[in-house]
Each structure stands twice: as C-alpha cells, then as structure tokens.
C-alpha cells in the first residue's frame, strides 16, 4: 500500500498500476493507444482508466471482487487491466474463443459481479449467464470502430462508454498491496474444467519489467496486439508497454492484410505470435507488400519455430525470439537468450539453437529439469525429465482449488508437466508436452 503506516521509506509496494501513473505524468501528450480512427494520449488513457475505476466503485465493486471482461483486443480490455485493479478488484479476462457453456462456468467459478461484454459475443453468452448467481450486471461494449453487431444496452441504459462517463477522470490512490491478486486467468481446460490461475500485483509488475528488459521495449516501441490480451494478460505486455510509455496498437482480430498494413503505416517495432500465426502471416499474399522502415522484433511461443519459418521471418528483415511458459507462469518463464557469435552460423544451425526454450528470464527465478525424485537430470541434451519452475514468474495458486495448487507445487517447485532435456550450456529444450504451453 502507498502509505508510510505500512512500509518504511525504503519500500513501496510493487504494482503495474504505478507504470501508467508515471507514463501519464512524464509523457502526457504521447500517443498511448491507437485503434482504427481512435488515438488516445497517455493523459487520456489515464483519465479513462480513472473513470473506469471510480465508476466501478460507484457501482458497488469492493476490494477483492471479480470483474470479468469478454472482449477482443480493443481499448476497453486494455483499460480494464488498469481500471479494474485500481478499483481494488480482480480482473477476469475471458478467452473469446470459448463456447457459451465454458464462459458460463468461468463466470460462475470466479464469482464475477460484473461482466463487460463486446456486443458481437453477447448471443454466445446470453443463454448461459443465469448459471452465474453472483453476476449482478452486464455492461455491453459497442465497438463503433468495427461496427460490431448489436448496440443494445443493459437494463440501466448504459453501455461501456456511458459507464465510463459516470466516473471521474481525477487520479485515484492505489490501495492494493503487492501480494493482492490482480487477475485470474483460466487455463484451457483440455484435461478437465479450467483452473483459475491467480496473478499478484507484485508478479505482474516484475513480469512486465522482465518483458521490457528481455524484449527491448522503449518509449519508441509501437506494439501491435496480435497476441490476445486475455491470454496471460497478454504475457504482461499490457503493463510492460505502458511502463515504457510505448504505443499500444490494438487489433480486433488477426488479419494478415491488416497486420502488413499496420506494420508499415504505424512503424510497428514489436509483436507476439505463435508459430502457426506466423505461418499464416508469412504465407499470405499480402506479405509481399511488407516493407520494414524500422527493426521489427517478433516474439514467438507455443511450439519451436521451424528452420523454414525462421528463414522466412528473417528474410522479411525481422528478428525472431523464442520464449516458453504456461498460464501458471504469467506467460513466458524462459527465453532462448541469444549470443552474438551465433549470428555467423548457418540458417539451419541458428534455427536449431532458436528451437530451444532456453534459460529463465532475468527476473524469473529457478528453471530445472528433474527426475521423479526431484534430482536434476544430467546436462547431456539426452536425459529426459520434467520442467519445473520457481520464483517471481510463478502463480499464487489456483482460485478456490487448494488441492490442485498443492499438487502443482509439490516439492516447492511448480510442475509444468512438460518433458525436456538440458544441454551442456544449460539451455533447456522440450521433447514432449503433457500440458498446454503458450498457444
């Protein structure tokens, strides 16, 4: 908490909420958000977040309450990453690719009191929301930039923009403690019901800074939102880009011609995408029109990028970085940290090195490959073991599932369920995946 009554002068609670406050103070007139014809400065971004937070408080949202958003990569979801926790609440960003039954389960399990929902997705959810007894209100988000169907309002006559106008743009004191939960992200549920993975303010703040350091974010960054913000809170780039006062370039859906156009028009410097998305992009006819006017760094995860894909990306003039992690580790926990001397190797040799999952992020903590007795496997690139993690990148636990949390944390390490090896240089490489990793 930001109070001398709780912490001495040498300690301030870690939370990504301070990043927006700083950027709005230092770069008030810098472009923070671009979406279609919308452009918000950092001053306007902060004012909208303050309005959201104060409007939530006025609506009766209290500390620790869950507030759900079902929304594509548009400004409201970005604003929610700051406005919901600024109100003391917990953000539940729901996967827009789920079916109505799965969404209803998440609303019920999380106990969300409010649901902000893009009107395009309303018909998907409407038949099931009665199963969430804690849900008190649904506020529609009308995407006028995309002319999304269904402009209906809730029973109070409010849509998202009207809801914001009921709040104040004045700054709000941050009351959250660094160990408070900032968000709950639900796993894919491929092996049963989805689990609610809890992130802390502290973990979110550190992971955001880890992205700044490892991926090279700066105030000149223009970050294109090809990665869903609902997925591990956008691997914490929602907070990281803001920390550096970079520009968020929102994209409602992955569309190769739009991506190519935006990279050129807005001089994009960074985006994230799974190899499958990169294959879709590099094989699309629109890619022939791509002309880079500044360095472009692409971060990929979900599967090792193939030598062919790496060559295709590099032929565009872009740099590709391979990371690895899970929902339980705020997204990436490890990165294939690059060595300058590897640049002189052949494309095939570089691809083999980039296919490895690498080493821990600079802020993350422990990363091991262990046998059934929790002993480290030999660093011979051949002996198989389970990948386990520990440290700042690991979740607080599963929401309302203490037994599943205890099982995941057996031996004092988070068990990924992924099988890998350790190479002589200490870099890990996956050989089998028992659980979904970043997709």
The secondary structure category is alpha/beta
Determine the mean pLDDT.
93
Radius of gyration: 21 Å
Strand portion, in percent?
A: 15-25%
Shape: globular
Q: What is the CA–CA distance across the termini? A: 35 Å
Helix proportion? 25-40%
Order of strands across the main sheet: 2-1-10-9-11-12-13-14-15
Main sheet overview: 9 strands, mixed
Please explain how this structure is put together:
- Helix 7 crosses helix 9 (237-243).
- The protein has helices at 17-26, 42-58, 75-86, 100-110, 122-125, 160-165, 201-215, 232-235, 237-243, 256-266, 275-282, 307-315, 347-354, 402-408, and strands spanning 31-35, 38-41, 66-70, 90-93, 114-118, 137-141, 181-186, 196-200, 222-224, 247-249, 270-272, 297-300, 319-326, 331-335, 359-360, 365-370, 385-391, 397-398, 414-422, 428-433.
- The strands form four sheets. It has a nine-stranded mixed beta sheet, with helices on both faces.
- The chain is α/β, with parallel strands linked by helices and 439 residues long.
- It has 14 helices and 20 strands.
- It is 29% helix and 22% strand.
Defining traits:
439 residues; nine-stranded mixed beta sheet; four-stranded parallel beta sheet
